[in-house]
Design the sequence.
């Protein structure tokens, strides 16, 4: 492998302008993240401390092994929903190390509406458990939730991927032999009661922890029975009478201590042996990424410059360097793990699609995980390309990618438009993790293109109907379309809807991928095989 | 997450700050870089800590480590912050009857300070007398069955005052 | 090598001394027989011996004091001699007699000599008669009041001790007439309790006395030589903890006088085998006969180290009738040797005995040091036997080097799991007064404060805590068991 020779001049005017732009985007991201993590009404925080409870992030910090990372996922989930009433979708999800085992940690956030589950909370939890299933990662639930947010029950309760999916996933996890531990710090009411109920191990804090299908008010309303929380579902009742929970704890600290001891009993994972080298920092400073990503989504940049700031030693073995040059393919190491990288350097043509499909097959044969670095406006369109079979060549790439047995990871480095999103392992393609940079935009096409397309359609329609074209109406349509697109194209909208696993600082890409790859190796590789390629 | 160690009746805190490129421990709030790690197990070892090579001998005796270093022997023991509780963690406030029966003897009265394992009441059940021990250290809050009174399985026979936080 | 007369010797002892004797037996090609109580079935002396006989008793110590069983064991195994070591039956005349009666050689003086020297009064009288200086004293009597009256006459301070005892039991110093009666009564009752003989004995107490003893060898026919003296002044609870040879700051003339005195006594007694004549030496240079030990001393290795002789071999050869191994003129001393007694005890708590388990034993290895012990890693240290675990004996070209080497050896000695006096011994050796040779039997109490363990140095504390923390499996796992890339990424948050 050869070290990539960067062509970037860090003193150039473009570099500085881009850097200013991207650092501003990053600051905005950090600001939103900080608010989602910590901005809470004083009243809620006081209630929590009066109950002797820690804040959910304190619990996580105490649970994690000291001096180890925590890759938080979807920190800005629901940031554009519910008028911002559900920061981080009222839950914290991430991957970290507890007692030397890598685990998914999923915590309710009692500082938001008593930890009630919004629709996107359920989506986030389901996604967390999907991650656990796909990667065979044990899960630690930190339970403290009032239950479903009743005002939005139709969006929380009935459908396939709503709250019920959480418990379905828990059951399947257990069937797969993936361990789950619940630390019950607060209430687990109604469906929430099944989280400890379906966990292999559970610890419950005396005095504050409680598990029941119906709380005292519901019991009173239903049967007239008057009962206290402790009697109905407290720590001593569940650990000594019902057997619903396993270990009583005197306080939250002890619950965490017991939880850590439980995890220490678990067998260590036997990962499949992805080819590995000793890790090495990139030769180029990752902070230079800020000066590489342009200040306009339409401006092209060389993705090799990005690769050079993510991979070990900035070394890259480029495959078919002279063929299909709009798709860069090649091997590199990230935190020591050998990966195959596919990175967009322009629109996908027939040759680049074929090269991509072929490279994906090579990686599958070589047990090499795939990393997709997206900056794609789509597959090339037009008569010439359709005649050359751009659709069937694109289909080959999608087929190869979809049927891959190796883990896939996607980073949205800039734009993700059209079918290019599919070929490059968009959200629908079961990549193990998908991370987004703050400058990212996603849509079936760009805002301007969509406005132009719709305006074009409108003009044609007007011409068909009466022959006169109302220019003002067309302009208004163009403007509305562009605006609506602009909002929904943004990374914040994308991450709010959990179309990704979180926005990350571009500089953090290497660490995020390192942890993601490590996590992915817990799940055994499936049998190889593809569908029918259209030649 | 720190380990608490007691040496000469003083408690010290040791936790991990970093592992790469070298292990960095925070000991009583101060960082110490260990550039060479000692081997595991009992016996002689060498470590480089804070830029100094330090030879020592060490032996493990349960929750104690005996360390010989610099011509002195130190007896360091681990402090379990939750040792007050039972082995399963979190001691209970209530003493429940393990089976139906009758109280034969009440050993302690409300307000009495008791230590874990000390009998609170003796019950008779199925012609078998059993002493019910205090589930943790604490103060008896109530004895809910007098001598001669009967009870059902899982009934609370005695309670302890709830634990108060002590830092 | 002289052809051994004995083919098999039973070692009527245990612990380090049994091992030490067996080492010489092995060198001499003589088979060894060990005796052991059930609790020490896997002890090192048992493993070292060619064969072993289990002895029984209510306590392990009682078994080792059972003359009949031990003689029977020697007979049953066909041993033609018994080496008694020190302690236990080594100075028991009845034992020597029983052994002889069984037709087995006793490696030591005969029963009559043991009796003579074993009784403080007869020994003292014998010494006095043969021109060996003794301290003004009062003979024991059954009449305690008469004893008190006589004692008062020789003046104070006075040392009172049991007539039949040794090892500091029932010993006390009386500084005024007012305290005499009470002290005598206590001494008498302790003597009764420990030795079954309530008679007590008093003599002039020498202030800041030094304990000097002379190693002698006698051929049993009036021939005797000395192997120089040893200084055993550093004591706690009336028991030696550091011994050295030669003594520090001893004028050559005085050394010659003391050694000559000891040879005179041994010759007069027709002493046979190895013995030690103990003296008390005052600051004024006057020395008085204390007692004679009719056996090998615990501290004999310091004499071996400076003279190059093997005292156990000498004992065996003398017992075999081969006479003295060398003439006085051929005895030379080279350099300086120091012995430290490693005991399971807590110097910070008045040297109270400690028990525990030797979880790790690491002994420094040097040509100039001998580590005499029967300890094994994993061995439990119980209150069944004496708290002395081992002896660390070091040789140097002079006293200065011997002290430095001893401190280095103690520093390098790791005996972990049971509290010991190792650190304390190093502090004694490093004390200015010790280095200056300003020794006397009250050294330990005189320098009590300076010898107490100091606060932990600020730089050492984190080192100790780090080593301890990393010793716990759980913490080790936490520090070293983190999977990659998590360990390398460290405390990163996104």
Sequence:
């Amino acid at each position: 492998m050869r070290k990539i020779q960067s062509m970037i001049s860090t003193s150039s005017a473009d570099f500085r302008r881009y850097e200013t732009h991207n650092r501003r985007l990053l600051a905005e991201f950090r600001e939103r993240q900080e608010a989602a993590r910590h901005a809470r009404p004083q009243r809620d925080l006081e209630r929590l401390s009066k109950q002797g409870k820690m804040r959910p992030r304190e619990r996580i910090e105490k649970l994690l092994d000291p001096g180890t990372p925590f890759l938080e996922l979807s920190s800005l989930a629901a940031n554009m929903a519910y008028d911002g009433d559900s920061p981080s979708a009222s839950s914290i999800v991430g991957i970290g190390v507890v007692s030397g085992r890598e685990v998914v940690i999923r915590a309710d956030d009692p500082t938001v509406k008593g930890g009630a589950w919004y629709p996107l909370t359920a989506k986030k939890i389901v996604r967390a458990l999907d991650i656990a299933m796909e990667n065979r990662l044990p899960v630690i639930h930190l339970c403290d939730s009032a239950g479903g947010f009743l005002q939005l029950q139709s969006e929380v309760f009935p459908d396939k991927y709503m709250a019920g999916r959480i418990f379905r996933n828990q059951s399947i996890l257990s069937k797969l032999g993936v361990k789950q531990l619940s630390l019950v710090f607060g209430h687990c009411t109604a469906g929430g009661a099944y989280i400890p109920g379906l966990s292999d191990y559970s610890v419950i804090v005396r005095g504050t922890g409680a598990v029941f299908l119906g709380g005292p008010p519901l019991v009173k309303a239903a049967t007239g029975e008057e009962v206290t929380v402790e009697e109905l579902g407290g720590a001593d009742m569940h650990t000594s009478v019902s057997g619903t929970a396993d270990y009583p704890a005197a306080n939250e600290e002890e619950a965490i201590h017991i939880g850590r001891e439980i995890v220490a009993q678990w067998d260590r994972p036997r990962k499949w042996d992805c080819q590995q080298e000793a890790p090495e920092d990139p030769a180029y400073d990752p902070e230079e990424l800020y000066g590489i990503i342009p200040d306009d989504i339409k401006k092209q940049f060389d993705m090799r410059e990005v690769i050079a700031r993510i991979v070990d030693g900035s070394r890259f073995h480029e495959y078919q360097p002279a063929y299909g040059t709009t798709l860069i393919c090649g091997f590199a190491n990230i935190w020591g793990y050998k990966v195959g990288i596919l990175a967009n350097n322009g629109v996908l043509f027939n040759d680049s699609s074929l090269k991509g499909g072929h490279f994906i097959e090579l990686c599958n044969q070589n047990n090499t995980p795939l990393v997709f670095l997206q900056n794609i406006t789509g597959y090339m369109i037009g008569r010439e390309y359709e005649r050359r079979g751009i659709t069937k060549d694109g289909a080959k790439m999608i087929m190869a990618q979809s049927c891959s047995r190796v883990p896939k990871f996607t980073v949205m480095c800039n734009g993700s438009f059209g079918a290019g999103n599919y070929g490059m392992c968009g959200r629908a393609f079961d990549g193990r993790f998908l991370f987004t940079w703050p400058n990212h935009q996603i849509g079936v096409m760009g805002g301007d293109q969509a406005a132009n397309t719709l305006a074009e359609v409108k003009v044609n329609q007007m011409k068909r109907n009466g022959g006169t074209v109302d220019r003002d109406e067309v302009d208004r349509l163009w403007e509305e379309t562009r605006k609506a697109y602009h909002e929904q194209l943004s990374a914040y909208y994308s991450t709010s809807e959990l179309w990704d696993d979180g926005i990350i600082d571009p500089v953090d890409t290497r660490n995020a991928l390192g942890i993601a790859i490590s996590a992915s190796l817990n799940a055994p590789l499936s049998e190889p095989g593809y569908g029918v390629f259209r030649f | 997450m720190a380990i608490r160690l007691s040496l000469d009746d003083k408690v010290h805190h040791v936790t991990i700050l970093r592992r790469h490129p070298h292990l960095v421990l925070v000991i009583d709030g101060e960082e110490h870089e260990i550039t060479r790690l000692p081997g595991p197990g009992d016996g002689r070892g060498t470590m480089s800590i804070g830029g100094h090579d330090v030879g020592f001998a060490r032996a493990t005796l349960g929750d104690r480590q005996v360390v010989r270093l610099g011509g002195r022997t130190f007896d360091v023991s681990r402090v379990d912050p939750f040792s007050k509780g039972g082995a399963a963690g979190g001691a209970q406030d209530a003493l429940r009857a393990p089976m139906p029966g009758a109280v034969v003897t009440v050993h302690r009265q409300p307000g009495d300070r008791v230590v874990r394992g000390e009998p609170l009441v003796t019950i008779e059940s199925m012609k078998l007398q059993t002493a019910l021990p205090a589930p943790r250290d604490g103060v008896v809050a109530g004895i809910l069955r007098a001598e001669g009174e009967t009870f059902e399985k899982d009934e609370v026979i005695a309670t302890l005052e709830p634990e108060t936080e002590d830092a | 090598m002289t052809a051994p007369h004995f083919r098999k010797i039973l070692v009527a002892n245990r612990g380090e001394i049994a091992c030490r004797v067996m080492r010489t037996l092995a060198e001499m090609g003589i088979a060894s027989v060990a005796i052991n109580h059930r609790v020490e079935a896997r002890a090192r002396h048992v493993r070292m011996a060619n064969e072993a006989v289990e002895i029984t008793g209510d306590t392990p110590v009682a078994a080792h004091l059972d003359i009949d069983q031990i003689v029977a064991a020697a007979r049953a195994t066909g041993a033609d001699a018994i080496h008694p070591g020190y302690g236990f039956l080594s100075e028991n005349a009845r034992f020597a007699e029983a052994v002889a009666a069984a037709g087995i050689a006793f490696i030591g003086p005969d029963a009559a000599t043991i009796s003579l020297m074993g009784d403080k009064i007869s020994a003292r009288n014998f010494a006095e008669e043969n021109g060996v200086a003794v301290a003004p004293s009062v003979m024991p009597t059954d009449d305690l009041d008469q004893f008190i009256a006589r004692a008062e006459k020789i003046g104070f301070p006075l040392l009172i001790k049991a007539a039949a005892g040794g090892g500091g039991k029932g010993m006390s110093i009386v500084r005024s007439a007012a305290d005499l009666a009470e002290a005598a009564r206590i001494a008498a009752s302790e003597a009764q309790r420990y030795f079954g003989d309530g008679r007590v004995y008093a003599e002039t107490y020498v202030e800041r006395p030094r304990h000097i003893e002379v190693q002698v060898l006698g051929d049993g026919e009036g021939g005797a030589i000395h192997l120089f003296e040893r200084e055993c002044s550093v004591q706690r609870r009336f028991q030696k903890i550091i011994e050295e040879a030669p003594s520090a700051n001893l004028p050559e003339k005085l050394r010659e006088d003391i050694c000559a005195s000891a040879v005179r006594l041994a010759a007069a007694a027709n002493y046979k085998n190895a013995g030690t004549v103990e003296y008390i030496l005052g600051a004024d240079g006057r020395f008085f006969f204390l007692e004679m030990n009719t056996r090998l001393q615990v501290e004999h290795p310091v004499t071996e180290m400076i003279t190059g002789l093997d005292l156990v071999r000498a004992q065996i050869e003398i017992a075999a009738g081969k006479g003295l191994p060398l003439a006085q003129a051929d005895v030379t001393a080279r350099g300086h040797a120091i012995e430290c007694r490693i005991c399971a005890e807590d110097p910070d708590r008045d040297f109270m005995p400690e028990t525990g388990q030797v979880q790790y034993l690491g002994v420094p290895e040097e040509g100039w040091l001998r580590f005499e012990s029967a300890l094994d890693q994993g061995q439990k240290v119980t209150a069944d036997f004496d708290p002395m675990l081992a002896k660390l004996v070091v040789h140097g070209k002079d006293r200065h080097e011997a002290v430095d080497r001893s401190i280095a050896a103690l520093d390098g000695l790791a005996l972990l799991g049971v509290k010991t006096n190792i650190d304390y011994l190093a502090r004694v050796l490093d004390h200015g007064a010790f280095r200056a040779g300003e020794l006397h039997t009250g050294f330990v109490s005189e320098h009590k404060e300076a010898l107490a363990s100091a606060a932990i140095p600020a730089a050492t504390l984190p080192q100790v805590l780090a080593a301890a923390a990393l010793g716990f499996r759980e913490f080790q796992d936490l520090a070293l068991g983190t999977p990659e890339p998590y360990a390398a990424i460290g405390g990163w948050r996104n």
